[in-house]
Amino acid sequence: MNLLKKIFEHEVFPAVGCTEPISCAYATAAAAGQLAGPVEKIELVVDPGTFKNGAAVTIPNSKGRKGNLIAAAMGAIIARPELRLEILKYASPDILNKALALIDKGAVSYLCKEDEKGFYIEAKLAGGASRVRCVVIGGHTNIAVLEKDGKSCIGTSSQAPAQSDLYHDKMRNMKLDEVLREIADLDDEERSYIQRGIDMNLAIAEKGVDLKRNAYQLRQMMKQGLKADDLFHRVKEKVASAVDARMGGLPEPVMTSGGSGNQGVLTVLVPYLVGRHQEIELPRIQESIAVSHAVNSYIKSYTGELSVICGCAIAASISAAIAIVYQQAGIDIEKMTYAIDNVIGDLCGIICDGAKAGCSMKIVTGAEAAMRSAFMALAGFGLSDDDGVLGRSAEESIRNLSKISLEGMQLVDSTVVHILQNKTPRSGQA
Question: How many CA atoms are closer than 13 Å to the CA of 245, on its beta-carbon side?
Answer without folding.
Answer: 26
